[in-house]
Amino acid sequence: MSHFGSYEDRVKDFDWSIAEKELEYNDGDVINIGWYCTDRICQMGKGEKTALLWEGFGGTEKKFTFNDIRIASNTIGSFLRELGVKNEDRVCLFMDRIPELYLGFLGVLKIGAVAQPLFSAFGDESLFVRLDNAQTTAIITTRKHVSKVRKIVEKMPYLKHIIIVDYDGKKPLRDREVAFSLEEATPVEEFECFPTTAESPSVLHYTSGTTGQPKGVKHVHYSLISQYLTAKWVLDLHDDDIYWCTADPGWVTGTSYGIIGVWSLGVTQCVLDSGFSADAWYKFIDKHRVTVWYSAPTAIRSLMKAGAEIVKNNDLSSLRHLASVGEPLNAEAVVWSQEVLGKPFHDTYWQTETGSMMLVNFPGMKVKPGSMGRPFPGITAVVLDPESLEPIKEPGRPGLIGFKPGWPAMMRTYWNNEETYKSKFANGWYLPGDRSSIDTDGYFWFTGRDDDVINTGGHLVSPFEVESALLEHEAVAESAVVAKPDEVNMEVVKAFVTLKPGVEATPELELKIMNFIRKKLSSIAMPQEIEYMAQLPKTRSGKIMRRVLQAKEWGEEIGDTSTLEDDE
Ligand code: WT7
């Protein structure tokens, strides 16, 4: 039996206090996510249950019980405390998906500090803008990634501690660097968590917008309420499940559902710290007997491409429930999974800012392939007329998605950027910046984003950030960055550039520029193609018209260019 029952029954009389009761939380109590994910589960008698089954590159395995993760997060927390890290200080986690990332995250929360996880593939520039915005006090990293921190450390006087969790003593530590080994540290059995309350800051995730630098989405400890209940009802997590969330905790799915949701429910999860490979993924499911799987459309499309044959080499019969997030899940992918895996992927829609799932397909609910599903109980969702910002009544007519503010996991602000935060609200609605229609049964159908942000393989990339980085290359005079259609990643980054006088437009230069962006920003933000132009299309006032270039990539009519000549 799924936890959920019928949609109508759940929506009727829904109240978030359902989760508060289950978590034995009362208004005004201390609420600390680190404690809820570890100590509380142990107090419930599940200390010896496996919390984490970790598999690294090359098949190394590590296993942690709930008592192990309780002690490990205590140990990291007390190490940070001894260094002088205080509540509300930002502590960045900059690691591959090693156990220290997960345990460090909880340790940071336990001392009341703000966990700032950053994707380990970020280059020094991507890292710097995010640490600088957050004025981060400490960063926890590994030998593999510390060189990127060293490159920018002089520009960051506020960064007091660089903690290396796999220091091998071979090269001397530099200024502000300190070694910490989870295996060698004295285990801290008893630990006093910082008494955070509902509105105490917990997690800071950076997300990209169309303009300006990435925005730091501030979450609070009370987010647990929605993360716990959505994980329970939508992912349908039960006590005996083996859960696999393929997302990296550098992104919100990897924390809300790759740490908080699953562990606050006391459920076992496995983590695979290596890149995508269809064969390795199927083997992983087979080996660990994964029952609930939360993944993303690009991964599913890659599995489709790898073919049905290799599915047969593995026993995937343990899979009970499949869910997806991050980008449009095409109907074909749902039909494919039903055919090949015997179960449909259940789409979920939400974003860094919402902190937890908003539009969902529950287990047991009729899946309409290609639809994002219906609002989670307690969520009021509409589509708004873009002009009047009034809810659209007619089924099927697309408009801007709007959510009534006030669910527990909603962001509380953009760090140091209250103005942009405020701009996300209009007429009493929170606007996530996406478009959708609603059908007669109340199902939402995604129709597109409302801005120029590129969603490549489920990762948001700001064209502005890539354009700025391109301008730092010595050969580039001007740049415009757009999304280009792609079979697997849905969209990839494409750059148009004009070169400085005298620079020759060669294929070698294209590779050099691509690599320059990869190092500075990340492999995700790296343009997959660079097209040289003699000049870029501009408005009369000189603003580059991305939309003209984008339309060309998608084979769309540009329409009346006389209006495009004007600034908007
Ligand atoms: C943006 C949020 C929260 C999970 C990871 C992404 C797009 C997300 C769907 C979906 C179509 C989707 C939206 C959204 N998106 N889920 N099911 N169907 N589009 O978090 O990086 O903050 O990105 O991803 O455009 O606004 P994020």
Task: Pick out its properties.
single chain, 568 residues, alpha/beta, Rossmann fold, GMP Synthetase, Chain A, domain 3, 2 domains, nine-stranded mixed sheet, five-stranded parallel sheet, 22% strand, disordered C terminus, binds 5'-O-[(S)-butoxy(hydroxy)phosphoryl]adenosine
Outline the structure in words.
This protein has 568 residues and is an alpha/beta fold. The chain folds into two domains: 7-438, Rossmann fold (3-Layer(aba) Sandwich); 452-554, ANL, C-terminal domain (GMP Synthetase, Chain A, domain 3). Helix content is 30%, strand content 22%. The protein is built from 19 helices and 28 strands. It has a nine-stranded mixed sheet with strand order 2-1-11-10-12-13-14-15-16, sandwiched between helices. Strands 4-3-5-6-7 form a five-stranded parallel sheet, with helices on both faces. Strands 17-18-22-23 form a four-stranded antiparallel sheet, with no helix packed on it. Strand 8 (201-207) and strand 9 (215-220) form a beta hairpin. Helix 7 (124-134) crosses helix 8 (143-152). The longest helix has 18 residues, at 66-83. It starts with 6 loop residues before the first helix and ends with a helix. Mean pLDDT is 94; it is low at 562-568. The chain binds 5'-O-[(S)-butoxy(hydroxy)phosphoryl]adenosine (WT7). Residues 207, 251-253, 325-329, 347-352, 372, 432-434, 446, 449, 455, 460 line the site of 5'-O-[(S)-butoxy(hydroxy)phosphoryl]adenosine.
Quantity of strands, as a count:
28
> What is the CATH architecture assignment of the largest domain?
3-Layer(aba) Sandwich
Number of domains: 2
Name the helicity range. Answer: 25-40%
Quote the beta fraction: 15-25%
The backbone outline, from C-alpha atoms, is: globular
Q: What oligomerization state is this entry in?
A: single chain
What is the typical, i.e. mean, pLDDT?
94
Structural class determined from secondary elements: alpha/beta
Distinct ligands = 5'-O-[(S)-butoxy(hydroxy)phosphoryl]adenosine
CATH topology of the largest domain: Rossmann fold
Major sheet description: 9 strands, mixed
The first-level CATH class name of the largest domain: Alpha Beta
Distance between the termini: 53 Å
CATH homologous superfamily title of the largest domain:
ANL, N-terminal domain
Note poorly predicted spans. 562-568
Sheet with the most strands: spatial strand order: 2-1-11-10-12-13-14-15-16
Gyration radius (Cα, Å) is 23 Å
